[in-house]
Write a structure and sequence with these properties.
Blueprint (H helix, E strand, L loop, with lengths): L43 H26 L10 E4 L7 E2 L6 E4 L8 E8 L10 E5 L6 E7 L2
Parallel strand pairs: 2-5
Antiparallel strand pairs: 1-3, 1-4, 4-6, 5-6
Length: 148
């Protein structure tokens, strides 16, 4: 017969249960998300760089739009145009004037579109100024009647 172990000892040599989790606690609890990092205050320089970037992008987009989708590109016979930065005499090519469609009664109106032809090899009568624009499948010729 064997003798019983002394009181307070483990007869089967088992380890006592460990506390729950690495630091103890409830084994069924889910740790929460980490606290967000504190936000850095925005600098004036960073804000100015952002504003300048937006302005530059806006100017580029507006310039591209008016070059390909506005002004002379959308003008049709009967429309009046203002040549923003040129007197527009003789044959006018892309980049010379920055055309803007205006009301024919407007004091800024310099030309009236007498005819619009597809392709850059269109011909106009001698009394008209000829404007051609080509590229990206938008080739056209405008015959412009000077208003002033």
């Amino acid at each position: 017969m064997t003798t019983p172990p002394p009181p307070g000892t483990n007869p089967y040599n088992q380890q006592p249960p460990a506390p729950y989790g690495p630091q103890g606690g409830n084994p069924y609890s889910v740790p929460g998300p980490p606290a967000p990092a504190p936000r850095r205050p925005r600098s004036v320089k960073g804000i100015l760089k952002g504003v300048v970037s937006l302005v530059v992008i806006g100017v580029v987009v507006y310039g591209g739009y008016t070059t390909w989708f506005g002004g002379a590109a959308t003008a049709d016979a009967g429309d009046c145009l203002h040549a923003g930065n040129a007197a527009a005499t003789g044959v006018i090519s892309v980049g010379d004037p920055e055309f803007e469609i205006v009301d024919c009664g407007d004091a800024k109106a310099q030309f009236k579109v007498a005819d619009r032809q597809s392709g850059t090899d269109g011909t106009c009568e001698d009394k008209y100024r000829r404007y051609t624009q080509g590229g990206s499948g938008r080739d056209f010729t405008l015959c412009l009647e000077p208003l002033k």
